[in-house]
Amino acid sequence: MNPFIESFIYILTGLGVTLKYTLIALTGGTVIGTFLAILKYNHIGEFGVNAYVSFLRGTPLLVQLTLVYFVLPTLVGFPIPVFIAGSIAFSLNAGAYITEIISAGLNSVDKGQFEACNALGIPPLLMWRDIILPQAIKTIFPAFLNEAITLAKETALISTLGEQDIMRRAQLTAAEHYTYVLPLVTAAICYYLLTFCLELLGKKLEKGLCYDYSQKSI
């Protein structure tokens, strides 16, 4: 097999690792962000939420990843696998940004919606799940999609811990063949294709789902 094709396939197989971290971070960050945004909107533990968001947004992701992988084990008393450390660090970082994204969406919802829910005696869980959050989705979706694309690129930092993602495989290939041009160009193409597909998928979801969700109002 041609060495270039062989190297391309080897680097491309790291796409699964990159996508895995992206999906985990996006899921974990969405859960964290939604919970904290609701707390912040209701002025519950607002100082703590703001402190969390400020710290995670104000420090480099690489530092956060290093802290979780090297410092956290000394606190808990046992080593943390790279996969767990990466998932925690990426999810916490994404949660800080998604908290602000969802907070902006909640603030865009008409206050009358909350008043109507209270007047009708709708339980808080149903109110947030079926009425308020669906209306906020149309506003936050573009920013949320941008965060997903950013996450896909930032997962390249997991290569610093030795994880066999796209970037790490490109580095290993470059070291083996004593050239960085083709491996890094290949990695760039892989990341571009990934983000391009995410963008296309996001636009389709925005046109379909967001229209339906925007109709869920009182």
**Portion in strands:** under 5%
What's the CATH first level of the domain at 17-164?
Mainly Alpha
Helix content: over 70%
Give the helix/strand class: mainly alpha
Distance between the first and last residues' Cα: 63 Å
Subunit arrangement of the protein:
single chain
CATH level 4 superfamily of the domain at 17-164: MetI-like
Question: Architecture of the domain at 17-164, according to CATH?
Answer: Orthogonal Bundle
> Based on DSSP secondary structure assignment, what is the total number of beta strands?
0
| Uncertain stretches | none
Biggest sheet architecture: none
Order of helices and strands: HHHHHHHHH
Q: What best-fitting shape do the alpha-carbon axes yield?
A: globular
Tally of alpha and pi helices: 9
CATH topology of the domain at 17-164: MetI-like fold
SSE layout:
Layout: H1 3-12, H2 15-41, H3 46-58, H4 61-76, H5 82-108, H6 111-120, H7 124-154, H8 166-177, H9 181-213
Helix pairs in contact: 1-8, 1-9, 2-5, 2-7, 3-5, 4-5, 5-7, 7-9, 8-9
List keywords for this structure.
single chain, 218 residues, mainly alpha, MetI-like fold, 82% helix
